[in-house]
Amino acid sequence: MAKSKAEQRQQDTDLATVWPDPPVETVGSRATRIRGADYLRELERLQVELVKCQEWIKARGLKVVVLFEGRDAAGKGGAIKTMTLSLNPRYARVVALPAPSERERSQWYFQRYAVHLPAAGEMVLFDRSWYNRAGVERVMGFCTEAEYEEFMRSCPEFERMLVRSGIMVVKYWFSVSDDEQERRFQARLDDPTKRWKLSPMDLQSRARWVEYSVAKDEMFAHTDIKQAPWYVVNADDKKRARLNFISHFLTLIPYEDLTPEPLALPPRGPDKGYVRPPLTDQTFVPEVF
Length: 289
Hints:
There is one protein chain. This protein has helices at 5-18, 36-60, 76-84, 102-105, 111-114, 136-140, 145-164, 178-190, 200-207, 209-223, 238-252; strands spanning 26-27, 30-31, 63-70, 92-95, 122-127, 167-175, 230-234. Helices cover 46% and strands 12% of the residues. With 289 residues, the chain is of the alpha/beta class. Helix 3 crosses helix 11 (238-252). It has one domain (35-98, 115-257): 3-Layer(aba) Sandwich (Rossmann fold), CATH 3.40.50. Residues 8-30 have low confidence and may be disordered. The protein has eleven helices and seven strands.
């Protein structure tokens, strides 16, 4: 039965209490605030579509790679969590590699990433990827000039090779303004539950804002290729960014609805006289709440 306007307003109020509206932010002349209730409603719809898309990927044996890149505090991690919230983790994996070991440093640069590429029916989401070499490694001096130049030459060919082999490569760059990054960094400093998100490397990214801008522009100039283009997500408003990138991703795969027919739960079988041991034999978690 359809809700009355009064009931709908009350539901919106309840949802907004759980997920309050963010402060008004602006990008250029456009206010980017989105109501919490509107966000949750649209996100719920998109997550249903993501499940349908995943079923299509599984059924057709597709292989999908999604790269998430951008400045520190641009919202990549939150976007990945939002995208995978309702997906089957057996077929949608998140890869977030630590700093390479000594052995990995001696390997072909792409080797440590290649082992995580998807098999048929899988989707792999890279929380940062091989583009570390064009970003943090370049700016912080963790690679040589020769290694950097070789990456710029070989990366487009590597991605074309992946596409030719049947792997779909989707690349998102989450763009955040200087002021918004500073606000998010400060929020992490003030919140004990978020301080782990800040590292000395993150703080260096603030001091080297211009260097990172140059590195990003050079990276785009070399690797924004037709077979695997970069898609830029305006991420100053996290909620709007999540909705926009998920909505865009769904347009890239012409999926169909393969939702199976509803299942009926069978009745529980008879106990056949079995007597379970007493509850006092078990150790329960104290019910503090």
